Protein: Bifunctional protein FolD
Organism: Saccharopolyspora taberi
Amino acid sequence: MTDTGNAVLMSGTDVARAITDRTAQRAAQFAEKTGRKPCLATVLVGDDPASETYVRMKRNRCAKVGIESKHVPLPASTTTAQLVELITDLSNDPAVNGILLQHPVPAHIDERAAFEAIAPGKDVDGVTMHSFADMAFGGKGFASCTPAGIMRILDAYDVDPRGKHAVVIGRSPILGKPMGMLLLARDATVTYCHSKTQDLPSIVRTADIVVAAVGRPEFVRGEWIKPGAVVLDAGYNEGNVGDVAFDEAAVRAGLITPVPGGVGPTTIAVLLEQTVDAAFEQRA
């Protein structure tokens, strides 16, 4: 733990390292038993620089833990039908254990249709409706990686959500919505906030746990934070800036994640872990 202002810094890098160390051991066990490495297919449509960077980072992490990375780059002109066909082929390929469609995709593509082409057993990024429903009902499906990574950070720093008021700022289907469901499953009282929420600062001031997932730099101000609250910043904006005004919030929070080095590393670590889980499940 590191003190920053009055808050203790929650290192996602440290949490992620523990996850990836275990994942590397399990990947090696899989390779020993089967003669091949677990395989993650990454699909990137277009040439968005940020997306290219994210995919490159994920492929590098795959190599470090003993996961094979099958990268499929597609031109920005790719149609929804072409993308769905490709993902369906990957879903039917027994050599592929997990599928990651880097998002966002170009605006002309129906992203939801593309996500739904991923076989549930290979949805290691937790983006399909099947995975969301399974997670919401406490099933064994794969969780959305960023919310799952946030839960791992809370566990690593002994933050029990039970009975606490958690405010999730953002309602995207792969971050905000599943984040609230995971907290609800751990007996938190959850409030979702979004662009139509009235008097957002007042609501945030009542939160014991704040998850910021809006994609707007330094949107959550320090004065919104209840003294001693746990603040998890799931935003990543240009210039390595999160969705929380970090310096302001750190003065009031009890625990806080940095950007970078907070939520991001755990997201990738959970992706790798779930890829190896998928490989073992498909072999069973």
Notes: Residues 231 and 256 are 5 Å apart (CA to CA).
